[in-house]
Amino acid sequence: MTEQAVVALGSNLGDRAMHLAAARKALAALPTTRALRASTVEETLPLGGLDQPAYLNQVLLLETDLDPRALLDACQAIERAEGRVRGERWASRTLDLDIIQFGRRTVAEPGLTIPHPELPHRDFWQRGLAEVQTR
Catalytic residue numbers? Predict the structure, then answer.
């Protein structure tokens, strides 16, 4: 069943704009998936006042037949392809992809919670979400 999913993209290491562009292209190329709309790219300070470079953030609206777990697995593969190494929580990263919404679904599984629990606390995600949903 085709559903709309919203993925948040973020990068604060290396060529941040290139990492976001690669993620947009890779997400749009997933099987039975197409990108519908992308929000404006926004630069933000790291969360929690950490001493890190600023992030570039964007929100992408997808239409997909993938289920949430398959989309998460694909997002993590795309992160790895862009040099993401998972280590310390909140550490700087070349690419971070978070599923923030998936249709009207609520998912609570190990490693996957939808809607993303941080959505209410991240103004830049809320702005991006509003932008892709209202165009």
Answer: 84, 93, 96, 98
